[in-house]
Amino acid sequence: MAREALGVFGLMRLVEGNLNEFVFTSVLSALASLEFVDSGKQVHCVVVKNGVLGFVSVLNALVTMYAKCGSLNVSLMLFEMCSEKNAITWSALITGYSQAGDSHKALKLFCKMHYAGFVPSEFTLVGVLNACSDVAGIEEGKQAHGYLLKSGYETQIYIATALVDMYAKCGFTGDARKGFDFLLEPDLVLWTSIIAGNVQNGKNEEALSLYGRMQMHEILPNELTMASVLKACSNLASLEQGKQIHARTIKLADVVRVRRMMKVKGVRKETGCSWIELKNHVHVFVVGDQIHPQIGEIQEAIWRLRKHMKDEGYRPGHDSASMSLRSEIGS
């Protein structure tokens, strides 16, 4: 994409001569990677020559490009040059510092952005959360979390992952678990984050229990997941447990592979269903059913039952998964 953008940009210069700020903003955005930093510098020179450096959109594109290329000193210089900064200008540099591992500067700049009256986007807040994870900046992390709640961004998977990671790395595994449980369908990255967070904080049994639940959902682990799980086994001084988990993971991989093959070939599994007779009337329920005329009352009853179980000390989904895992690993 970057090479095509450069080609079109070159042709436009030959045909039209002076180009407007929208063209420069587009081409600079396409060049925002280390591989094309030299081309970006050349376009920067053309920006100055054409007198469009004063447009905030062009400055934002330059700040972003240099930040993503790791040239943070140049990015900061351009940021300070900009007399009409907007939220994008601030976000570009904050995200750049965060991605470069300079978390203290990212958080310091975030505070300045807040006091300057700018509202951060969800992308800025993810950068802030990642920075908080690196320096255990729980107060700044909670502030960012508050922004996310007000903005309604918390349900997005990449934001939930950043929140879980931040709370876990700051030692607040309870808050990390709340963030994890908030999402109905966590992906591999989120599972890995919550498992790793528990291992990091010495909650090895909890990490293995979560891994058991992850396997029940037929989600294959990656290298990072397995590293955390095996570390948990090591911390518990259970070599046999680690071997059994590894073997079970291989079996799960075979199951997932077969199901993917069935899907490709159009082989369908019969939908699971159950029924109950009540007052001479048979009620049929299908997996994922939401059309039963009394579904609202049924879900409310289930919610009350789960709350009662929780109040009595039982954790739904936790014990069953733990028992399933232990039955497999023989512990």
UniProtKB/TrEMBL annotation:
Which positions does the entry assign to PPR repeats? 86-120, 187-221
One GO term of the biological process aspect:
RNA modification
Superkingdom field:
Eukaryota
Assigned keywords, A-Z: Repeat
InterPro entries recorded for this chain? PPR_At4g14850-like_plant, PPR_rpt, TPR-like_helical_dom_sf
- Give the GO molecular function terms: RNA binding
NCBIfam families in UniProt: PPR
- Kindly provide the name given to this protein in its UniProt entry: DYW domain-containing protein
Please spell out the taxonomic lineage of the organism that makes this protein.
Eukaryota, Viridiplantae, Streptophyta, Embryophyta, Tracheophyta
